[in-house]
Amino acid sequence: MLSFFKDYKYFGIVLLILSVIIVTIIFNILTPKKVLPIYQPSMVNFEMVDSTVQYQSKYHKIADFSLINQNGDTITQEDYKDKIYVADFFFTTCQTICPIMTDHMVQIQEKIMTDDEIMLLSHSVTPEIDSVAQLKRYAVEKGVIDSKWNLVTGDKKQIYELARKSYLAVKTDGNGDAYDMIHTENFMLIDKKRQIRGFYDGTKPEDIEQLLEDIKILERD
């Protein structure tokens, strides 16, 4: 009897390994793959959506843009072509939510440093204060890596229109004039087709963890 078990020991081990592989394959097949939604204006809280696009139910994409980064370079949608990226809106003199948001962006930057598919994009909502020189000082202070993360300034109306009509990130109404002010904690996850795939509270560590997981999901698509 002992000799029987000895003779078939290796066969049993191989059979066990094959069984584990088969069960794993079946489990993966039967487990639904998570797919991130493609956010349209009609799917988002109406308070966050400009009235001109509020009822749009398909084909929503981030509009073309032309802004200036911390190095004085012109940044457009072409710099983010075929990239997944995280966008937000901030200002360098903010003392409330922006420091927390920036620290979380730094954490994301650390996680994506070796991933050429992922970038970051932060828009100043006080472009009259956040000059190129000011953005550069801020970038150096926070450890911004130029190849991964653009801090951009430029025409206020363009930035505010992007926030309201493209990124669907702002609750307040306004036209980008001298009296208009945006202050939002939202991070937006944008796919390679310039579509919104997620909204996250940039002040909450748990939302940042979810954002990082969702980036992995997008990369697998």
Protein architecture, described:
Cu cation binds at residues 94, 98, 183. Residues 56-220 form the Thioredoxin domain. InterPro entries: SCO1/SenC, Thioredoxin-like_sf, Thioredoxin_domain. This is SCO family protein. By secondary structure, the chain is of the alpha/beta class. The protein folds into two domains: 1-31; 41-220, Glutaredoxin, CATH 3.40.30. It is 37% helix and 16% strand.
Low-confidence stretches: none
The name of the CATH superfamily of the largest domain reads Glutaredoxin
Strand content: 15-25%
| Tally of individual domains | 2
InterPro entries: SCO1/SenC, Thioredoxin-like_sf, Thioredoxin_domain
Domain Thioredoxin: 56-220
Protein name: SCO family protein
Binding site for Cu cation: 94, 98, 183
Question: What are its keywords?
Answer:
SCO1/SenC; Glutaredoxin; copper; two-stranded antiparallel sheet; 221 residues; SCO family protein; Thioredoxin-like_sf; alpha/beta; transmembrane helix; 2 domains
